[in-house]
Amino acid sequence: MEIQQLTKEIRNSYLERMKVRSPEKLATSWYQEDLLYEGKGKSLFVIVPTPGCSWALGDGGGCTMCSYISDCTLEPIDKNTIINLFKNELKKHLDEIKVDGKEMPIAIKIFASGSFLNPQEVPVETRNKILKIVSEVDQIKEVIVESRPEYVKKEVLEEIFSIIKNKLFEVSIGLESQDDFIREEKINKGFTKEDFEKAVNIIKEIDHEDNEYTAKCKAYIFVKPILTSEKEAIEEAKNTAKYAEDVGVDRISFCPATIHKGTLIERLWRKGSYKPPWIWSVVAIINDARKNISIPTFMDTSGFGSRRGPYNCKKCNKDLKHAIIKATLQQKPIEDYECQCKKEWVSEIKSSNLNKSKTKTKHLPLI
Ligand code: SF4
Ligand SMILES: [Zn+2]
């Protein structure tokens, strides 16, 4: 498939130049305010070092916008090293978690820069040891991991719950788009809607069974893939949110495009054939979700207002970013905000199909 070849070529040339860091340099964590299933609380984010996403390292070449691979070692890591690094990161925040846990719910988000449930990326023994450590912290009520749908299996979830027992467990899956053509040809995701629905159903089955387990599912939605106009990007994000809710997803997180190194999206951006979305488009998506979607919806604001991220103008970038963060925590719409640059956005939306590139992926002048 052309998109896979192209992504693979770009990925390989980046991997040749990439500076690989040690697991010690890659492990990191931060602790911040968040909206949990139980309400307002705090989340500890821990990045565990891994060799890298199998989809990005394999023949598929990975997704057109993702550079998580640059946060990986590209080679196997000793199991004890990963576990010890995880322990260290948790230890840094444990005192605070214990105090906060008396007043608010606490979640842990364990990110593996790929699929936590893929044994090639996080060996089963390592995964279970990490979860065992988490299970011993009473204050942590919710455990969140990310995975591609093909690794979501009933027996894997049952094994996880046998360790974490009654803590809530959420699998976040990068659905990105409800449209198979967009997901396949513009994002190069490598799985179908059926694959996604199968994973959601496995999670829901466990959740509904007569047991103490609480299993949840979150969908990531990518805002503005390549070769997509501003208007189409908004519509597609709205449609995908509706689809995700209809198939039974519990929460949604929108991820507006930012340009990461060594990706196809970056190649197009450098050639002037791609621009990340306006923050106004993001606002439109949030406000639509508040009206039409009843499950919680989140917005990833990383990269907002930067050269490589969603952008409006210097006057309103920061204000809107803060308004979006606040609106996410409160699950409210963003109202009554005006700036001169809005006119420009409106005219781009109106003429959207005129300035959309019609060039097919295989004909792009990428070299
Ligand atoms: S988005 Fe996920 S599946 Fe796609 S390349 Fe990145 S880590 Fe791998
Ligand atoms: Zn502005």
UniProtKB/TrEMBL annotation:
SUPFAM superfamilies referenced in this protein's UniProt entry, alphabetically: Radical SAM enzymes (SSF102114)
GO CC annotation, single: cytoplasm
Cofactor: [4Fe-4S] cluster
Domain Elp3/MiaA/NifB-like radical SAM core, residue spans: 43-288
Highest taxon, organism lineage: Archaea
Molecular function GO labels: 4 iron, 4 sulfur cluster binding; catalytic activity; metal ion binding
GO biological process, any: tRNA wobble base 5-methoxycarbonylmethyl-2-thiouridinylation
Record keywords: 4Fe-4S, Iron, Iron-sulfur, Metal-binding, S-adenosyl-L-methionine
Official protein name in the record: Elp3/MiaA/NifB-like radical SAM core domain-containing protein
Natural source organism: Candidatus Methanobinarius endosymbioticus
